[in-house]
Amino acid sequence: MANNRNGLMGDLDSFYSDTGTFLGKPGFRQTVRVGLVKPGAQAVLFFRFYKWLYNMGLRLLPEFLSRINLLLTGAEIDPGAEIGPGCRIGHASGVVIGRGVIIGKDSWILNNVTLGGRGHSRFHVAEPGYPTLGDDVILYTGVTVLGNVAIGDGAVIGAHSLVLDSIPAGALAVGSPARVIKTLSEG
To answer: Which residue blocks in the chain are alpha helix, DSSP H?
Structure first.
């Protein structure tokens, strides 16, 4: 079943699909377990709530709730970020998702991933903007993606990589700075 809904309903569609978990479609016990003990799922659910408030025009309360999310789950997700349905945060510790970040549907994010702007200093004036991730992107542990870059659909970024330039769809990129080492067309 195609996941065409956004927000929490899109998350539920993805979770209850045949590939919702590593074991397939979850049952009631699995659902309760994920909701109660998985900080990544809790971080996304909490984000969905304060993002809804943010979209209603509130600003201070969603910002405050994002700090509570950080304290409870270890993930710092700005209410101004856009996160597509089915996004999974495997381990919430150290995940930082900045205000202008856009994440497509069914992406996987592991611990210590940072998605944000490049910022400015007296040594560097950065181009404004934040990362945009396509659908089905996987970011392994310790990945940092900074600035106005795009990561294409189905791309995989290896652990501890620093992404400062766009990565095409279906590519495997690793290193610091990240470089494409393989594409799906190469087999």
So the answer is: 7-15, 28-37, 39-55, 60-73
